[in-house]
Every structure is written in structure tokens, then in C-alpha cells.
Amino acid sequence: MTNVIPTSTRISDTGLRTLAEKVWDKHLVTKGEDGTPDLIYIDLHLLHEVTSPQAFDGLRLANRPLRRPDLTIATEDHNTPTLAIDKPIVDPTSRTQIETLRRNCAEYGVRLHSLGDIEQGIVHVVGPQLGLTQPGITVVCGDSHTSTHGAFGAMALGIGTSEVEHVMATQTLPLNPFKTMAITVNGALREGVTAKDIILAVIARIGTGGGAGYVLEYRGEAIHALSMEGRMTICNMSIEAGARAGMVAPDQVTYDYLKGRAHAPRGADWDAAVAYWQTLATDEGASFDAEVIIDANELEPFVTWGTNPGQGVSLSESVPNPAEIIDANERSAAERALEYMDLTAGTPMKQIRVDTVFLGSCTNSRIEDLRAAAEIIKGKTKAEGLRMMVVPGSARVRIEAEAEGLDQIFLDFGAEWRFAGCSMCLGMNPDQLEPGERCASTSNRNFEGRQGKGGRTHLVSPLVAAATAIRGTLSSPWDLVQDGDQ
Amino acid sequence: MQKFTTFTGIAVPLRRSNVDTDQIIPAVHLKRVTRTGFEDALFAAWRLDPEFVINKKEYQGGRVLIAGADFGIGSSREHAVWALRDYGFDVVLSPRFGDIFRGNSGKQGLLAGQISEADAETLWNLVECEPGVELTVDLVSKTVRVGDLTVNFEIDDYTRWRLLEGLDDIGLTLRDEARISEFETKRESWLPRTLPALSPESSSINLM
Ligand code: SF4
To answer: Whose CA is nearest to atom 4 of ligand 1?
Structure first.
């Protein structure tokens, strides 16, 4: 954690609190004593087919009811096919998980959005889209990228299966207090630089363990200039820096996004809610346990070269030379990563040729992401031999995109236009990379084999994904402008 | 979760140390969607060998596993405890446990008692001389008795209390059920609810 500046020890008796502390305090059922955890109330529990079956089974074995079905919602996403969604699922494990979720939700009275339903989609796209994710609430889900919901100023935590069962039975979780870290992004992003580039740069700076034990609060002009989609992209990847959660204080952008959504408060309730939301921002003068400062003006389109999300550089740079890395562990990790990625130190990132472009995942599959990519590829031709897959985050995003004609732009370009789900983000369904296949992916994890055994992943923004699909090598929209000039 | 005080059962000597969770339950056996039924996955790779200790006739119905040091290290999978419980083990004795495994055990009603290396050796010898012998494990006095021999084991006070009371994590939280209900009465009425299900079509956009 070399690049994190520890701030002075927190002075707890000033009464000044950060956003995260306010949300925590508001949900305290019992305060832990003598090192026992606090008991925190959970406002919203999101379920999907992979981490819920054993939790339901545990309830059943102990003969316990699910306490608050009205604060629980389920969707099918990790295993669902993105082609021929009306056909039975071929893989037996996937099929069993989906069928089990359907049975469990019926038995326990949980609202479920199944494949084919208009609200089906990636759990972290569905919650915000329905207006269920709101500022100042606590959200949990048996999935590490639950941090996405922190974009609304919610405390959103990824949990394990036994904790899922615990929330089902009690609507609470015993949790240990956390430390707070401010990630302040000053200035303004240049054209072509996006939220994804901010978060990839943050992770490269603090490392994949740099956020361990912390709740990150993203602050500063550049953050508040982002749309909700951009904020979700950033909070989504907090977990890749090892953090427990990531948050952005709610502001007018948040309220505008929420207003009129299916489950957003209405009428007098709306006013009461906004009054509460306006109290959430970190108090002036409240201190954080650590702070990282980033200058948005200096950021460029970013891309990973290795096999963890912290192994990244600006697209204009070259594959780093492991011999120049001082830390011995990091050096050997870099050597292993280059071997797996089949890259040579010193190669300019822009010379790296890719086979596949994946536009999707809970990081970048919202309507704004699709619009941004479509705008770049419109009227252009796809690089020869390259495969591009576009997977909207939810059925509703897909319909919205089709209403705007984006599907046609992707299809004309030669991309595949798929149904909603996690898809190639983790390759639990048939959407996988072949061994050795190189992919520019808008997802969040470039681990070995994540997108398919032997597959090689470069994490990028939707803009870089689109530009790469045109040029066939890792590229940013800036390169297209130069091409046009020639 | 059942209250645990004292019970008597067949002891199984596992003369191996550094038994990691991958050996307790190999990853290929993690695909089930239930919480039970992992008994056949327990030590699955080792059980292919007919000479492996739990395959032997004398040790059928074993309830107390006596293992070498560093039992349960490695990946944090809770399935390792489930597999031991499903097979029928109520107690594992070892000179040292993996931290996460020990934590998971207490939550699932599996007693992980720490004994000295010397006592492990004594118990192994004794059980191997008299296969199928029963041990009495007493959580109140933290002892294991077999014939004239009494051996002490260690377990932290908190986990011991939970096992004696039969409280899993959820049971523990539900002791505060009144506090949870009270908290719920104070929650604002406008907080989001998933039911009844609303969709944009079914809700009139607020024009205020
Ligand atoms: S899209 Fe990927 S990261 Fe997001 S929930 Fe699905 S599998 Fe997890």
C-alpha cells in the first residue's frame, strides 16, 4: 500500500462523520461490546442462483422462515444463456442452479425475475434500474460486485453463502467496523477518458490489496461530474482494490436518476427521502483513515496488461519490464502474468492484437455504456477476423437499446447482439474464450481463466472496446481521430 | 443446532498432518445445491484406497476424528465442515487447526478441540491397538476419556459456550430478536420494498 497517504488518526469525539459512518450508525441494531461485531440492519437483499441455494437449504433444515420477503428480490444472471433463451439450459449444473432458485423463490415467497422476464438481468443492473437501490440504505448480495450499489450512497456489501442465510433469517448481519479511505479525483476528465479509466488507474495505484479493511468514498469534482452509470462502474470495481465497499455521496444527479423509477418514493415520501439523502454527505472536516488523490486531467485511457486488475498502464505506454519492479512478490507475479498473457516487456500496448471484444458485465453494460460504444462504431467496419459480443446488462437495457436502434448499429458493424446476463464476464454459461484467445473486455476481472480456460483478458472501457473492435489492436477513440486525419 | 455437552462415540485415527480443505473435500464435489449430502465427498481422493482408515470395517460409524497438526488449512470452503458433519463426525481433535476452519466448525456444531502432540500420539496408539474403541468427549470439563486415560483439550471460551448452548450464528442473532423487531418499527415507511412488485408501466411517473 505504498501510495496511500495515512491521514492523522481519526478524532472520534468531534462528532463529524463520513458518509459511510452515517449509513452504518443509522443501521445499528446492537452495538458490539468487547470486540464482538455490531449488528447491522439490512434494507435490501439481492439474490441470484449461484450463492443462494445452500442458504435456502440451511433455512429449511433449521425450519426457519425468511424474515422479510418484502426486502428481498432475486434474478437469474450468472448461468443464463445469452442465445436461444427459450431452449432448455444444456449444462446440468447451471440448469440445476436455476431450477433450484425458481423452486426456492416460490416456496419462500421471494420475487424472482426469470429468464425471459423484462426485469431479468445482472443483479447489480436490476436493483438500480428498478429504483430499489437508494441512498443511505444497506444492500447485500452473495456476490463480490455488490459494491456497485454504493454509487447511490448506499452501504453495499458482497457476502458469502452463510451470511446470505443469516440475512434471510434475521434481516441483519453481524459486522466488524471498517476504516475509511477517501479517493479524491480532482479536475475534469478529458474527452475519451471515462469512469472505467479512473477506477483502473486507482487500482493500479493502490494495488489489489490497497483497499483491504476500508470502505472507499469517491469524492471530488471529477466524480460528481459523472453520471450514475459512471459512478456505478467505479464503485463496482472497489472490490478489485480489496475494499469492503465503495461509495459516492448522493447529489442532484442521483435524485434525477431515481425520480420516477418503479420503486422510488413518490409524493410526500419523495420529499422525506430527499431530506434524509441530503444529510448523508461527509461532514466538512470529518477525517478519513487514509486518502488517495488523483488528478483527472492527467488520466488517459487505461488498460490492463496482466492477470489482476491492478496490473494496468495507460494505453499509450508499453508492457512493463518485470525486472524493473522492486518488490520481489510483485516482480514474480508480473513475470508469471506476462507468460500467461504471452506478452513481451517493452511492447507498446497499442500494438497488441486482440481476437475478441466483449462489451458487457455489471461494470459496463448499462444503456449509457452501449450508447457510448455505438456512437464510436457507427458507420465503421469491424477489424477483420475479430469477434465482438455485446451483452446488455438487463432485458430492459436490451429493449431500451433496441428502441434507440443501437442493436442495428452493432449488427451492421458485425457484432453479436445477445440477451442479458453475466455471460463472458465469468464464462459460467457457454460464452467463453478459447485457450490463447485474447480479449478486450469491459468486465472487471482479468484473472487467469476467468473468461474461459487459457483465455487472455485486457480490461478496458467501452470506448476503448469500441475503438479496439475497429482497429483490431488495443486502441482508444484518440487513435481513431488520428486515423481520420491521415 | 443441537446442544453439545458430552457424548461417546467411535474414534478414528487419521495419522496425517497438514490436511487441507482440498483434501477434506476436493473442489469437484462443491457443485451441489444443498447443504447436506456431502458425506461421500469427505476425503474423496483418499477413500479410493481401500486401506485408508475410514474405509476399514472397525472404524465404521466413527464420530471422533483424531488428526495430525494443521488440520483444515487452505481454502475457506465451508463445505469442509459440512462434509465432516454429514459423514457423522461430531468432534475433530488435532494439535493445531487452520483458523478459518476452526471458526467455521464452531458455527456448524463441529467441536474442534486442540490437544498436545504427545496426547495425539497417545490416542492414536491406543485407538490403533483397540480399533473401534469409543471415546467420551466432555465439553463441560474439556476432557477426552477412554478407559483409565483422561486427556485435556483446548477450545476458546466463546466457541465452547456457543456449543454448550447449541447456538449457530443465526441462533445467536435471534437472541436479540426483540431488538430487531423494535428497530423495524422505527424504519421510515418510504424505504424501498420489493413487494408488491412495481414496474415502470405499473407506476405513474411522479410529475410533482
Ligand atoms: S457480470 Fe460478472 S462480476 Fe458482475 S455479477 Fe455477473 S459474474 Fe459477477
So the answer is: A362
